[in-house]
Each structure stands twice: as structure tokens, then as C-alpha cells.
Amino acid sequence: MSTALILFRRDLRLAGYPALSAACAAHASVLPVYVHDPDADGTWAPGAASRWWLHHSLVALERQLRELGGRLHISHGDTTAQVLTLARSSGATAVYWSRRYEPATIARDSALKAALRAEGLAVHSHPGNLWYEPWALATDGGQPYRVFTPFWRRLRALPPPAPLPPARAQHWVARDDGLPVSVLGLLPRICWDSGLAATWIPGEAGAQEQLAIFADEAAKDYAKLRDLPARRGTSRLSAHLHFGEITPVQILDHLRRRAAQADPGLFLRELGWREFAHHLLYHFPHTPQANFNPRFDAFPWNADAPAVLERWQRGRTGIPLVDAGMREMWHTGWMHNRVRMVVASFLTKNLRQHWRHGARWFWDTLVDADLANNTLGWQWVAGCGADAAPYFRIFNPYLQAARFDRDAAYIKRWIPELAALPAKVPHEAWKHPAALAACGYPTPMVEVAASRDMALAAWRRLPAG
Ligand SMILES: Cc1cc2nc3c(=O)[nH]c(=O)nc-3n(C[C@H](O)[C@H](O)[C@H](O)COP(=O)(O)OP(=O)(O)OC[C@H]3O[C@@H](n4cnc5c(N)ncnc54)[C@H](O)[C@@H]3O)c2cc1C
């Protein structure tokens, strides 16, 4: 009876997992394995909010496998050493996994593959959690795409891969020498996670539930609601997608089957941005650290200012929409996309702090922190990324609030000390310092118009690109 190891990494699900289906089809016995190896992610080991999610997602997967008679074998340490030991002791002949596309994991997986093959094991890596792998699309000249619209046009013209049913192993191997999830130390020592626990259900079932809610309640109005942070107008599937609890193929299939709904085109386009982000990270692996557009290497950022950064991080800038977003993220591990753009613009342009400071903070506090999407988002807003927003497009946080949070419901939800004020007070905070101070709320830390002018002046001084 041949035995295969299936590695769970960012594929914390049983349905629609090509590597798992292949292992179940080719082997009588399948041993599900999770190796906790944060060092393999280099400087981008999961942040605190991601670790919280990972803990609960592993618990959910472990529960699913037990219901099927199996068990998730968990170990901690160097992936290659752990997988080799386990393969030897379980008599496995093959190891399966799905590919990841971050620079550090690509290097780790190449080493893993070589080590396993040297031991005589068969290695089968399968496509990861994208519609198409990052190298599948190229311009007519054979180059990576740098602009979203032609990338998306090409992607949409391809047939989406077919969804797979849940994999069924003939026999799940259930070893009892693995570690309990709790030993991995993923949960915070000081309890700050109650807001996360109240907001999310990590795991495959939670992902399917979230998709059903979105499909039933919001998908048809996505175009109308997606920019309103006070409404549940977007899917909130980003963390589920990041951890591979659901796939873009499954989402597309689900929405297609509910064909009565309005065209999900705009929503699919957002998934297209996710594909684009992974395409960029694969082809330009230096971009989590460095500007995509080297012209910005000469940009005169303000000197690092920990006190300034801390006011932004804690939601104490005195700019209500920015603070509401930062507090939403601190409490729930998630922030609405429009508000992400506003807080990022405020940090990089009005405060002229380097985008890397913002990217790091998001990395630690978002449950959906994702190297490809986060890098794209920050570089796009800062103006230095691929197909970035033109630099002069500096979000005015007051006008954004007046337009997308007209009655200040979002602001008041996350800054309850402003709840009794009329909406025009937070929308014109600079005019009402006394009213805001009476609520215990800080006065704006910078003057928005003047700091915008200074950012534009700094940008104009850059050498032509
Ligand atoms: C500064 C900044 C940082 C960001 N960091 C992250 C991050 O670390 N992780 C992350 O998943 N997204 C990130 N985003 C993108 C976006 O804000 C989130 O994906 C989105 O808010 C998640 O909510 P949702 O699932 O309801 O999105 P929906 O609107 O329902 O979109 C569906 C899915 O499409 C993908 N998507 C949507 N917008 C984008 C986008 N602009 N770029 C790439 N993929 C997108 C996500 O996977 C999302 O779940 C960032 C955006 C900005 C401006």
C-alpha cells in the first residue's frame, strides 16, 4: 500500500486542492502534514494577526481531518529536515504540495525538492491558489506585465480552471506523534484578540460561509457598495484567500452558478488585481523592499519619526477617517480597501514617511497580510509601484470621508468619542478643534492642504524618470 505525504501550507482546505486530489488518486494512504517553519519566510514571517488566523485555521483543518478518520501531523522546525524524517518513518514514497510564489519560499522549495529526490522520493508540486500561475501570462514581447489592464484583458480571455470536488483518501494516516497546534505559540500571550475572534471564523467552513453571505447579500450590489466602509459591501474573503481556505476558482464557480445575480465583473476584476500582484512579486522579487520604479529611490522622505508613526499606528492623527481605519484594523485585523488607500496616502504623502513603515505595520496587524497584495497596495498608493496611482493623486481624507462616509457612521463606529457630533464636525475637523478636544480627540497632527503641497513639491524635485 503506497503512502504519500501531503503538505499543507497556504492550502488549509480539503476541497479544490489539486495536490491533495492528485495524492489521493495515486496513493492508497495519505498522511496530512503541516510543518511550522517561520524562518523559511525570511524577513516576512507571519505577523501577529496572521499567526492568530493560522492557529485557528489549523485547528479547523485538524477537526475536519479527524472527522474523516485522519489527523493533521504537525511539527516545528526546518521544513526539509522535518519532511525527510517523516517520510522515512512513515515509509512514504512521494511528497505532494502546491506551489507558493514568494521569493523566500521559492528558494526553500527548490532545496526541499532536491533533498527529497536525493532520498529517492517522488516529488509532485501543483499550482498554488491562483487562477493562473504567475509565469503563465506574458506580453506579446514575452515580458512580464507591468500594467494591469492588458494583464487583466489577457487573463479574462483564458478559460478559468475547473473546480475540483473535495479530495477523498482511501485511507488517511493518523499518527499520534505530532504536536498539538497550541505548542506552536501562534496565539498572543497578552490577550488582545477578542475583536478578531468576534469578527472572523478562520477555516474552510468559515470561508464557504463568508462566500455564501457575500453571494446572497452583497455581490449584486458590489459596484454600488464596495466603496462605502460603513456597509458590508465587499466579500471579506481576503484572509481566507491568503490562507488557501478558499480558491478564486471556487469563488468564480459559486458566483457563476448564481447567474441570476448582476455581472460579477467588477468583483472579478479585484481578484484580477490579486493575480496581478502575484505576477509582479514573482517577476520582481525585490519589490517588498525596493521601489518598483527606481526614480523614487531619490525621493526625499521625511526622516524616520517614531512618534509620528506611532500616532498613525494608534489612530491618533486627529484626522477622523484615518484614525477610524487604523482602529478598525487594530480591533478586527482588517480594514476596508478605500480606507487602506486613504491611510496609506496620508502616511506616505501628508506625513512623507517611507511606504515600507506602513507595509510593515500592515504586515503585523492585518489578518489578510499578503506579501504580493500588500507590496502592490503600498507601492501603488505611494506612486512608486507598477501601474501606480499618479503621484499627484493625493487622497484628501476629509473629502474622502464626506463622499464615502457621508453620515460619518464608519467614523463614529470606530471613534465612539465622536458619536454625538454632527457628521460635518469630523468631516471638517480642522475647523472644530474645540469641539474635538472636548471629546478627548486630538487636533489634526498636520494641515492636510499644506502637507499635500509639500509632498507635491518634493515629487517635482525628483529627477525625470
Ligand atoms: C495599502 C494597501 C495594502 C493592502 N494590503 C493587502 C494585504 O496585505 N492583503 C490583501 O489581501 N489585500 C491587501 N490590499 C488590497 C485590498 O485592500 C484587500 O484585498 C481588500 O480590502 C480585502 O477585502 P475584501 O476581501 O472584502 O475585498 P473584495 O473587494 O471583496 O475583493 C475580493 C478579493 O480580491 C482581492 N483584492 C481586492 N482588492 C485588491 C487589491 N487592490 N490588490 C490585490 N488584491 C485585491 C483580495 O484577495 C480580496 O479578498 C491592500 C490595499 C492597500 C491599498
Itemize the secondary structure elements and their pairings.
Blueprint lengths: L2 E5 L10 H9 L2 E8 L11 H20 L5 E4 L2 H12 L3 E5 L4 H16 L3 E5 L21 H10 L13 E2 L21 H6 L4 H15 L3 H4 L12 H5 L5 H10 L7 H19 L22 H9 L5 H13 L4 H14 L4 H11 L5 H12 L14 H8 L4 H6 L9 H4 L5 H6 L9 H13 L5
Parallel strand pairs: 1-2, 1-4, 2-3, 2-6, 4-5
Helix pairs in contact: 3-4, 5-11, 11-16, 13-14, 14-16, 15-16
The structure holds flavin-adenine dinucleotide.
Flavin-adenine dinucleotide (FAD) binds next to helix 9, helix 11, helix 14 and helix 16.
Summarize this structure briefly.
With 465 residues, this protein is of the alpha/beta class. It has helices spanning 18-26, 48-67, 79-90, 103-118, 148-157, 194-199, 204-218, 222-225, 238-242, 248-257, 265-283, 306-314, 320-332, 337-350, 355-365, 371-382, 397-404, 409-414, 424-427, 433-438, 448-460; strands spanning 3-7, 29-36, 73-76, 94-98, 122-126, 171-172.
